[in-house]
Amino acid sequence: MPSVASIVARSYPDKIIGIENTLPWHLRTDLQLFKKRTQGHAVIMGRKTFESIGQPLPKRTNIILSRAEPNYLTEFPELRWAPNPETALLLADIDSIISGKMEFFVIGGDQIYQIFEGRINRIFVTDVFCGHINGDAKFETDFDAKTKGKKSEWWIKSEEDFPRSDFDDFPFRVTEYRRRVPFHRYRVKEELMGREPTLDAFWEQYQFRLEAEVSEEQLPLF
Questions:
Q1: Burial code of 81-100, b = ≥16 C-beta within 10 A, e = fewer?
Q2: Contacts of 82 by beta carbon, 8 Å cutoff, 6+ apart
Q3: Which terminal CB of the chain, N or C, has fewer other CB atoms within 10 Å?
Q4: pLDDT, tens digit, 9 for 90 and up, residues 140-157
Q5: How confident is the model at residue 197 (pLDDT cuts 50, 70, 90)?
Q6: Where are the domains of the chain?
Q7: 3-217: which CATH number, 3.40.1190.10, 3.90.1300.10, 3.40.430.10, 3.40.309.10?
Q8: Helix/strand/coil (H, E, C) string of 78-116?
Q9: What is the reported pTM?
């Protein structure tokens, strides 16, 4: 099945991701990176995250995970509502297979990150060097990729620093972490076919691309 990825921006060192459902900073460069990585993919978010954005993210399949049905679905008919994580995953799977994407993204907020934490295979973490701040939402996951003398669950694929600028309130660092032993999900093909009749036309092509992707991502033994 498609792999689960995630993107999160948090303060350093306090790991704050939100204050009263708003971002504590404006980083245009980071927003551009977010747009580039997620366009064309399905994205899963919580109700509060969507309401902080205010509208569906364009050129993405927006899946809202919320126990209660949002009252703005008629205003935004392109939104997809999932009352539980299993439905959110199913909707993201079907959309990814039809569009030929190898992964979809979990984009917040804090409770949504926690729900899918064990399923994430790669994550882009933006550490914002803004100093100590207070907030009501955190992303406190620790990545031990640089710890010596300890077998790490994660490894660093890339890391890049960005300076403060006229368009970015603070300097920040973007690190791509990948799970050393990927978490694989499986689903019965017939179950997907029953939910989405048009899926059969895309299945064979998707399987071919997935096998090629997995082959390229295999880590060397030494």
A1: bbeeeeebbbbbbbbbbbee
A2: 44, 63, 64, 65, 66, 88, 90, 91
A3: C
A4: 998 876 665 567 889 999
A5: low
A6: 3-217
A7: 3.40.430.10
A8: CCEEECCHHHHHHHHHHHHHHHCCCEEEECCCHHHHHHH
A9: 0.86
